[in-house]
């Protein structure tokens, strides 16, 4: 094995956005270091400065075509605060109803199209088969149709409530742009019931395919994908999982509550570390400090993922999700301390946690669709003033999402900051990739494609959305522009390093 040998995985696959992994080996053929690089830059935080604050819900939902609903919700909540207006109760419930439909379709996408192929088709299957078509070939066309139907009916709800199937436009400071009719409510109620059946079916599939397969169960519970970090998530007044509203709770690696704070206080608790080799920033717990890419109670690294949300919560808010919540923690041998399970640190359990959240979203969607207030015509309170600062937060499928706006007296933005779900998990992803590489590549062991895919599984479990996560400027984005003549010959080149 030659010194300083480099293994590059570029592009990495089955994620939103672009990234690559660099693995450097030492003279003995062991992993010396790894880099998870994100080479794209989008700059939303800077080019939104100078725009009207009220435009942000329809600007920031263009950050991503996969999770625009999350940015739309965080943005309108930030505007509620910035314009000092409290939306009517019915408006909050309509927002949350749309958000539950979004969660169902988003988590479905990851399980069946992005993360699921590693288990359903197999981590060592040819790359050409580890995709949604391979999944359909494995499980059958009828199940493939169920997956497509699930996504279609929930995007129908998003379009019905939000005005568009993607990039919703109905959120307004102080509420929502239109009420829900009784006919729409009845349709959504039936869709929510179908979603519950689909979520239970998906959990059964996970049980049959993963938990009853000793090789997969050994992989999920092995130390290849294990890190003991802090965890973050939003909880309601009873410390249960909540995607739309509540307090941010952080627990330490032992499961003890480290801090619980209102989302508007995030900057008192979260700081961001920068490395020169990537455009993403690394958030960490300010009171613990940045100690590098290490886990443990003395490191400020935290995770904010589906598994993290369950780790910080005492329970789920819906009955069927609670049953599966208890089953997962008991399967991993987690004990209850002060009424709450100790955290699960095996990161591949995130796939299971994601399906439990899918079931919770479906159940809560039914609760909201049958709430008598959901058809109230009182859906907006018109703002009458400008506070000048607004911070909104929701749980995006990939982690806690925060929008922070500041404006002048006219409502023109003077500062924009976003901490995106994926950004929270950048340090854990970096650490997970290195740990998986160290465990799987040792002393001359032949690096086969299946091993490289197992290393990719270390980031894929977090369901990263890198196009959402890269917003920081100022900086320099390397760029080469070639001008060619009609024969394709380069006649002039502009270059920025």
Automatic annotation (TrEMBL):
Keywords: Iron, Magnesium, Metal-binding, Nickel, Oxidoreductase. This is F420-non-reducing hydrogenase subunit A, selenocysteine-containing. Its cofactor is Fe cation; Ni(2+). Belongs to the [NiFe]/[NiFeSe] hydrogenase large subunit family. InterPro entries: Ni-dep_hyd_lsu, Ni-dep_hyd_lsu_Ni_BS, NiFe-Hase_large. Fe cation binds at residues 67, 468. Mg(2+) binds at residues 45, 418, 471. It comes from Dissulfurispira thermophila. Pfam families: NiFeSe_Hases. Ni(2+) binds at residues 64, 67, 465. One of its GO terms (molecular function) is ferredoxin hydrogenase activity. Coiled coil: none annotated.
